[in-house]
Amino acid sequence: MATPTGRSPELRHDPVSNRWVIFSPARAKRPSDFKSKSPENPDPNSSSGNSCPFCIGNESQCAPEIFRFPPDLGNPNWKIRVIENLFPALSRTGEYPSEAGGRSLKGLGFHDVVIEAPVHSVQLSDLGAGEIGQVLLAYKKRIEQIATFDSIKYIQVFKNHGASAGASLSHSHSQILALPVVPPAVSTRLDGTKEYFEKTGKCSLCEVRAKELIIDESTHFISIVPFAATFAFEIWIVPKDHSSHFHELDSDQAVDLAGLLRLMLKKMSTQLNNPPFNFMIQTSPLRVEESRLPYSHWFLQIVPHLGGVAGFEIGSGCHINPVFPEDAAKVLREVNVNLSG
């Protein structure tokens, strides 16, 4: 039965995540009515000053520094710092086994923090494209450093914004977690893109150009709501040219990506009432087989937190999204934001 919006429920298969998503508009208001009930961060200055270890001047409260931009350690006026995580999920010291085996493995790897700005009240979207580009290049540099360790198989870059999205500190930062195994979601993604490639001879992410799903584009990147978006108002930023690894981007591409990322974060914040969100750089395993490169295509995924995951999703792995991607893309396309700040 059709809903008041004229759309009937629909199941869509995502070849990238290789799972089905149920679109059920009867469970939602109009797409333009979605707003976060707990915007983050309502008062970015609430924990600034001496209590925040990420603020400039409080460097001694942090775990050891790995590098900074600008790179001069004698210059206290840093813009970006990459440090070890004070409470790491994995240990960076110890002897790695020659290969993974059995049902357990030593918890060895790397867990770092990227402090994106020295001032507590400044969020990532407040920075200019050049400054965000430097943050992206900091990711690239750290990935290249970690990639020299043969034991590391996969590196996940991610950002948690807001307490309900997993951020323990409101000071703008992101994280890098390097694993000695390839996570199952990454393997599933490769299997899904492989299946699509074998059927069509094309990379599924090179094909995401449907006009009704596009939000905006830049010289090198395109922003879309994916055809089978798992979450309401989920956004992907995808390189136009085929690229398997995030750390292949150059300085010009970093600034170009930064401008589009900034625009998407501003649009999302304006339309959805500054929601908590996560973004993840979905890249390929470090030593992916050459035969997989034609269908391995990295992208940046942004997921606003607008609702919880319930029993059906947990039990089945099949998500229910109340907003059709075409409707979400149209709403986001039409949001006007001020980029002069």
From TrEMBL:
GO BP of this protein: galactose metabolic process
Cofactor binding description: Binds 1 zinc ion per subunit.
Residues where Zn(2+) binds: 52, 55, 120, 171
Domain Galactose-1-phosphate uridyl transferase N-terminal per the UniProt entry, residue ranges: 8-183
Obligatory cofactor(s): Zn(2+)
Active site: 173 (tele-ump-histidine intermediate)
Biased segments, Basic and acidic residues type: 30-40
Keyword annotations of the record: Carbohydrate metabolism, Metal-binding, Nucleotidyltransferase, Transferase, Zinc
InterPro entries referenced in this protein's UniProt entry, alphabetically: ADP-glucose_phosphorylase, GalP_UDPtransf1, GalP_Utransf_N, HIT-like_sf
Region (Disordered): 22-50
GO molecular function, one term: zinc ion binding
Name of the protein in its database record: Galactose-1-phosphate uridyl transferase N-terminal domain-containing protein
Annotated organism of origin: Linum tenue
